[in-house]
Amino acid sequence: MKSILKLMLVLACFFASTFIVLKLTGILSIEAIESWLQFAQSLNTFLVALVVITLLFLDLFVAVPTLTLVLLAGYFLGPLAGSFSAIIGMLLAGLAGYWISFYFGDVLLNKLLKTQTERASAVSTFKARGPVIILLSRASPILPEVSACMAGLTKMPFKAFIFYWLLSIVPYAIIAAYAGSASTLENPKPAIYAAIGLTGFFWTSWWIFRRTTSKKIKTLSM
Questions:
Q1: Which of 153, 141, 204, 158 is nearest to 6 (CA)?
Q2: What is the pLDDT of residues 132-161, one digit of tens each?
Q3: Phi and psi at residue 19, in whole multiples of 5°?
Q4: ∠ at Cα 127 (123, 129), nearest 5°?
Q5: CB within 8 A of 31, min separation 6: which ones?
Q6: C-alpha span between 101 and 160 (Å, rounded)
Q7: In this structure, are residues 133 and 78 in contact, taking their beta carbons and an 8 Å threshold?
Q8: Do residues 126 and 156 lie in contact, with contact meaning Cβ atoms separated by under 8 Å?
Q9: Whole-angstrom distance between the N-terminal and C-terminal Cα of the chain?
Q10: How many alpha carbons fall within 13 Å on the CB side of residue 14?
Q11: Where are the strands (E) in 33-174, listed by range?
Q12: Would you state the pLDDT for residue 208?
């Protein structure tokens, strides 16, 4: 378990550093994103979808407020186009994270985990818990990118990864985009309720997962 936590911590620190930098510079603040979408809407609706897809794809490299962006996608594009754009963007980010890590992740794996035993432990642990980690990755702003990279790094079968990744992002995008489309400046309650509901669901599910996993580890060690 220590091996996989070590890998995930390094990846999380990398993504967190980009979030801090962008937060300080204000380049990808919520206000900036909203102004970009407003400008894009004044030119062409398809341009709004392109901005949403691009920003969600870039979430792999720089931390983007994903939930807020999907809500805004629904607000500017409507429930169908908004959810479709969000799904495409998150799918591209997941695919890029998986394949980049699949082909180049061995460098990080060998550098951080010196022995074959540690590397084998990390791979076997993620194979056992990876599906749940991917499904619940939306509990944290950084965890989705980490889980996609871990899937590629540990050579999770692509069919399994894409199945769990889609199962994670499709309902999430549909719910958030619909809530965004139902919201207005005068009545932002649908977006607020969706944000609270989605965050609460994933956090609760993640807490249950961690608690269950900890109990199993204690039982096996006794």
A1: 153
A2: 989 988 877 788 888 998 899 889 999 999
A3: -65, -45
A4: 115
A5: none
A6: 16
A7: no
A8: yes
A9: 16
A10: 14
A11: none
A12: 81
Kindly state the tokens that stand for 222.
Answer: 């006794």
Q: Which residues neighbour 85 within 8 Å (Cβ) at sequence distance 6 or greater?
A: 48, 49, 52, 53, 56, 73, 77
Give Dmax (Cα) for the chain: 64
Give the chain's length.
222
Structure tokens at 20: 């801090």
Write out the two tokens for 187: 């009545």
* pTM strictly above 0.85: no
**Among 199, 173, 208, CA closest to 83:** 173
Structure tokens at 118: 């540690």
To which residue do tokens 């809500």 refer?
Answer: 71
The tokens describing 120, both together, are: 């084998």
Decide: helix, strand or coil at residue 157: coil
Query: Is there a contact between 64 and 154 (Cβ–Cβ < 8 Å)?
Result: no
Supply 143's token pair: 């965890």
Q: What is the residue whose two structure tokens read 């609270």?
A: 196
Q: How far is 94 from 57, CA to CA, in rounded Å? A: 8
Specify the residue for token string 């997962």. 209
